[in-house]
Amino acid sequence: MTPDRIRSEVSAWLDANWRVDRPLIEWREILLDGGWAAPHWPEEWYGRGFTLDQTAVVAEVFREKDVVPAAQVGPRGLASETILACGSDDQKRRFLRPILTGEHTWCQLFSEPGSGSDLAGLSTRAEFKDGRWIVNGQKVWNTSAHHADFGLLVARTDWDVPKHQGISYFLLDMRQPGVEARPLRQMNGHQSFNEVFMTNAVVPPEDLIGGEGNGWHVAKTTLSFERRGFSRRVRGSSLDGPKQGPIYAEYEEELRIATEPYTWYPQREGRVDLVLPRARETGAINDPATRQEIAKLICLYTGAKLASDGAEARRKAGTTEIIPAGSIGKLAASVIARQASHVHTMISGAEAMLSGPDSAADGIVAEVLVSVPAISIAGGTDEIQRNIISERVLGMPKGFRADQGPFRDIKRNA
Amino acid sequence: MQTEFSKEQDLLRDVVARALRDKSPATAVREQMATDRGYDPNVWQELCGDAGLAGVHVPEVCGGAGGGAVELGIVAEEMGRTLFCGPWFASAAMAGTALLEAANEPDRQALLPGIADGSTIATLVLDDLNGPAGVGGSIRAEDGKLSGTAAMAVDAHVADLLLVTASGAGGLGLHAVEGGAPGLTVESLQVVDPTRKLSRVVFTEVPARRVGDVTAGALDRIWDRICSALAHEMIGGAQHLFETTVNYTKERFQFGRPIGSFQALKHRCADLLLEIEIARALTHHSARCLDAGEGEPYAASMAKAAAADACMSAARAGIQLRGGIGFTWENDTHLWFKRAKGSEVLFGTPAIHRERMMTMLEGAA
C-alpha cells in the first residue's frame, strides 16, 4: 500500500472512531478491533502486516491528529514482540491484547546479582513439580517491576547441560505471594530499577514460552528487540503540549509512570547540548585548556554522528560489509559522555561540588557528573562491546573460556 | 551535500589503490626514501603523466579531471595507505590548490595543466607551516624579486615551479618562481620522516612573478583544502597500520595462544577502530563540505585534528602491539609511524586546529 493510500485510510477510520471523551482502555479496544493498534504485526494479531516504514506513516497521522496510540512504552513492548515472535497461539490470545490496551504492564527479569555481563550464567531455579513450575532466585535491574503485572523471566531448568542449553523462558505473574519487588537506589539518587525476589513463585505450564531448554533463544529474541530500540523508540510518543479531553489525562498518567525511570537518561549521555551555553555563561569559553577539551568533544560528537549516519546509509543500500553500528555506537556514546562530563567539570570548577536547584543548570550538571558512569555499563558494558567489536568485526580470536561443560560444574558467585 | 561516495568515486579509489599496491610496495618505499630525490620518475610518469592523479581536482579547462576535494582526498588516502614516495602532495595538493584558490585566471590556465599531467613538479612555499596567521612574515616581495627564508618546504628540492607566498606592495601575494632561478637556494634538511623530503629555501632577490592575491579568506581556503587532503592521507596510513597490526595479533603466538585473544590487546584494537571510524567520518565530511561550500566552516580543522590523533594512536599501537620487533628498523611499522608524526604537525598540530575550530565557532579567546 502506498503512503498516500495508508494516510487516507487511517485518517478516514480515525475521523469515524476517535473521540477524546472515551475511557482510555475502551478507546484502545476499538483501536485493536479496527486493526490500527500495531500495523506492523500480522493480520491475525491486530495488525496489517505493514513494513516499519508504512507503520511510521500511520504513527505520523496519529500524531497529527493528536490520537492516543496503543500502549507501547517501557518493557511491555519487549513482551509483546517476544510473545508475537516466540509464543503459542494460546499465549498470543491471552497476553497480546491487554498489553496493547495498556491493562497489563510488564517487566524484564533477566540480570541477576551473580550474572551481569554473563547473562547465560544465570542461576535462578525453575523446577517442575506437581504440574507447575516453582521458581526460586533473585533478579536485578528490573525497570518497572514494582508495578508490573507480568515479568519476562529466564530461569535455569537443567543444571546438567552446558549453560546456554539449560535455560527456559517464562511469563511470570508478578501479582503472587512468592514475588517481591524492592526498589534499588542508584548512585545518582534515582530509583529506576528494582530487585525482584522469587520464593516458590508459581508459573503454570502454559506460561513457559518457546519450549523447555529453549530459553536462551527466546531471550536473544527479546534482546534483539531491545537493541533495535523498541522501548526507546516509542518512549518519544508523548503528544506535544497539553491536550483537552479526559482520555489525555489517563494517557499522560500512563506515560508518566512508564517514563519516570528514564528522566535522568539525557544526563547519562553527558548533556553535550549544555556545554557551549555553560562555557559562555561562566566565561570558561575563554580558557585555552577548556577550549581544547570542548573542541575534542565537538569532534567526537560530530564524527560519531557522521559515522553512524554513514553506516545507516550503507546498510540501507544493502552493503555486505560487517557494520558494527550497534557496538561502535554504544562505545562512542560512552566516550562522548565521559568527555562531556570532563568538560562540564572543567567549566564548573569548584562549583561542581554543588548539586540541586541552586547549582549549575538547575542541578542538571551535577546530575550529569553522577549519572555518566551508567552509560558504559547499562545494556552491555564497554568491555563487552569491545569484545564484540574485536571478535565479530576485527575477527580477533576468542579468549580462553572456563564455562564449558555442564553448568553444575562451572565456578560461579556464591 | 554529498554524504556517500558516488560510483565514479569508488571506481577512482579502486584504480588508485590497485596502481599504488603495484607501484608503491614497502620495498619501493624503502628504496626511494634512501635516495636524495625521494621518488622514482618512471612511477611518477605512470601515476601522474598517464593516470592523471595530480589533476583529479583540477578543472577540465586547466587540464584536469574536474573533481574536487573529495577526489583529491581519495588519492591522498590511498597514497597514505601505501606511504607513496613522491612529490604528489606538494605538487597536486599544495601547489595545485594554491593556484586554484589564489591565482588569476590566465595563470591558472598557464600553470595548472603542467601540474595536472605531472610534467611540472611544483610546490607551495610557506614561511610558516603551523597556521595561516603566521604566513607572510619572513619572505618579502619587492620589484618582482623575493627575499627571505622559508625554514621548511615540502619537496622543494625537486620542484620545477615554486609558488611562494610573500608580502609586498599589494599585500600577501602568490608568486611563481622557477626551480633553479638565480638567487634561489634549496638545502635538503635531515628529517624524521624520510618519505617526505623537506628543504630550507632561501630567496636572495629571486626573480618572481606575482600570479594572484592571497587574501585572508583565500589563505584559509588553501589551508583548509590542504589540511583536508592531509587528513585523508593520515586516514589511509591509520587504516594500513590498524589492519596490519590486527593481523599481526592473530598470527603471533605467546603463552600458547594468539596474542589477539588477550583482552588487553582486543580492547585496544576496538578503541582504535572507534577512533579511526570517527576520524574517517570527519575527514570524508570535510572534503564534502569544501566541495559543497556548506557545513561547518571548521570541518577541515576537525578532520585534521582527529585524523592526526587517530593516525598517531594507530602508529603507537602498531609499534606496541608488535612488541620488540615493532621497534626495529627491519620491520616496516616505523615508516608509517614517522609519516604519522610528520603529518601530525605539518600544517598545524591537533591543538592548533582545535583552537582554530573554537575561534571560528566562538571567536578568539
Unreliable stretches of chain B: none
Biggest interface found: A-B, 45 and 39 residues
CATH topology of the largest domain in chain B: Butyryl-CoA Dehydrogenase, subunit A, domain 3
* Count of individual helical segments of chain B: 11
Descriptive overview:
Chain A is 44% helix and 12% strand. In chain A, strands 1-4-5-8 form a 4-stranded mixed sheet. Chain A has a 4-stranded antiparallel sheet with strand order 2-3-7-6, with no helix packed on it. The longest helix of chain A is centred in the last third of the chain and has 29 residues, at 288-316. Mean pLDDT of chain A is 92; it is low at 230-236. Chain A has 414 residues and is α+β, with helices and mostly antiparallel strands. Chain A has helices at 3-17, 24-34, 52-64, 76-86, 89-101, 215-227, 230-235, 246-259, 265-268, 275-282, 288-316, 325-348, 364-371, 382-393; strands at 106-109, 125-129, 132-140, 150-156, 167-173, 179-184, 193-203, 208-209. Among the domains of chain A are: 102-215, Beta Barrel (Butyryl-CoA Dehydrogenase, subunit A, domain 2); 270-374. The model of chain B has no long low-confidence stretch (mean pLDDT 97). In chain B, helix 8 (263-292) runs antiparallel to helix 9. Chain B has helices at residues 7-23, 26-33, 41-50, 69-82, 88-102, 105-116, 216-251, 263-292, 299-320, 333-345, 350-362; strands spanning 122-125, 139-142, 145-154, 161-168, 171-178, 184-188, 198-207, 209-213, 253-254, 257-258. The two termini of chain B are 31 Å apart. Chain B is globular and about 75 Å long. With 365 residues, chain B is of the alpha+beta class. Chain B is built from 11 helices and 10 strands. Chain A binds chain B through residues 276, 279-280, 285-288, 291-292, 294-296, 298-300, 302-304, 306-307, 309-310, 313-314, 317, 324, 328, 331-332, 335, 383, 385-387, 389-391, 393-400, and chain B through 3-4, 246, 249-250, 257-258, 260-263, 265-267, 269-271, 273-274, 277-282, 284-285, 296, 302, 305-306, 351, 354-355, 357-358, 361-362, 365.
